[in-house]
Amino acid sequence: MPVLMGVNENRMDDLRLFGIETEYGITREECPEMDAVVESMELVRAYLKGPFQRRWDYHGEHPQVDQRGFRVSELAQDREEALFAEQDAHRPFSFYEMKSDVVLPNGARLYNDHTHPEYSTPECRSLKDLVAHDRAGERILLAAARRRNALLGRESVQLYKNNSDFQGHSYGCHDNYLVSRSLEFQSLVEGLIPFLVSRQIIAGAGKVGREKQEAGYRAGGFQLSQRADFMEQELGVDTMHNRSILNTRDEPHADRTRFRRLHLIVGDANMSEYATALKVGTTRVVLDLIARNQAPLMVLESPVQAIQALSQDTALKTLVTRKGGQTISGVDLQREYLAAAHRVLSGGDDETRWILQEWERTLDLLESDPMTLVGKLDWVTKQWLLDTFRQEEGLAWEDPWLKSLDLEYHHIDPERGLFYGLEAEGRTTRLCEESDVERAIGFGPEDTRGGLRGACIRQFPQYLDSVQWERVTFRQGDKTLVFEMGDLVDPASVAHHLGLLLNARQPEHFCSFV
């Protein structure tokens, strides 16, 4: 669960951070009744070249704490975890062994989220780094799947970077940002919800049919987002049930007195690098506006109804109702935020200028010629692929063949994935080089604590005792040494500590004794 974003208006660029955590869909083709818990655990462990060792420290995780100033007594997933524990009682491993947390040399976290392998990028400061580390996650999961299949002796385990199993179950892709604790949470609510409701027009992954957790899947039609159907309320701390447009979990994984972590569960998993960058980049820009008290006031009458209505209209003509009775389209909602960003941030750094330029260009093309965005926006690309196939074969949108092709769009094996097929043909927009992705597999960003965490793992694996997002603990003889990173967000401080770490012969040369 990476952390992230600006703190102090005078140094917002220096302290900007973000990250993505992605749960992957997993199947075994010859085993329709597979045990998803075991398969996810075995897949994560298959990435290791040596035996599994438990390193992750769960003591710093408190998902029951709410941004609105209280702590809930129980989450929906707590009840589900209790049920899992009862069901798992027969298994020859503990809950934490089942999680199988692996902390990687690039500072990322790979683990079994009970029935899904999950990859959390290290904290990133630039969109280019984020895209490279998101793609590195795909390669790491693919390597794990290939090793697992080699052990099984067949090409059995398949992985999908999507958000739905077409049976009423959704799994997440969460984007995370650090904001200042001095920024009131209500300001985030007012500034973000209309933006998030409409963000799917640029960041949706596209989906055949409709789906609900209780009602299951219904074939027919095509929509913008895979997650919109599963949004049930405006605000809430749960992530597995009663999902909210704006998640209220207050788990900063950093100095609580200084920071909040904005943990967004509303978004889709993107295959397109361009869509990933726009999704996170535009959100970062909106957070800059909110921090400056310059976000447009765009209160919606019913955000849950609005996010689902907008998702169901690929023509982008649907109007949603604002408080007071006025109506507005998803594109125009986005344009309100873009206009504010042009007024306030147009003189910003190169990355901000790129975001504003591409945001505007994308909105213009969505209104004038959406098909020019094939290879850039996932929902447009997938709709074009499926509609072309549908017309050639004379199929209705209800045909189950289209549901299968929808899933194959997200397959992370280049030999099968439909998106990767387009990428191989040069028909997608890439923002990083293959060399960037290869480096991101082994190294974290050098200007964030993600790079520090990864360097600790590479430099002193024999001394590692436990790891969490804000802390690395070493055991050296009879001494426990702790490297605290809870407030290490400034790039200069990160560079200083990285220099100390890389020049140290032992952890005691840069850690504190406890």
Biggest sheet layout: 6 strands, antiparallel
The proportion of strand residues reads 15-25%
Question: How many individual β-strands?
Answer: 20
Contiguous helical run count: 15
- Low-pLDDT runs of 5+ residues are 1-10
Structural class: alpha+beta
Strand order of the largest sheet: 5-6-7-1-9-14
Mean pLDDT: 90
Description:
The chain contains 15 helices and 20 strands. The chain has 514 residues and is an alpha+beta fold. The strands form 7 sheets. It has a 6-stranded antiparallel sheet. The protein has a 4-stranded antiparallel sheet with strand order 17-18-19-20, with helices on one face. It is globular, with a radius of gyration of 22 Å. A hairpin with a 3-residue loop joins strand 10 and strand 11. Helix 4 packs across helix 13, helix 5 runs antiparallel to helix 6 and helix 6 crosses helix 8. The protein folds into 2 domains: 430 residues, Creatine Kinase, Chain A, domain 2; 68 residues, no CATH class. Helices cover 39% and strands 17% of the residues.
Features:
514 residues; alpha+beta; Creatine Kinase, Chain A, domain 2; 2 domains; 6-stranded antiparallel sheet; 4-stranded antiparallel sheet; 15 helices; 20 strands; 39% helix; disordered N terminus
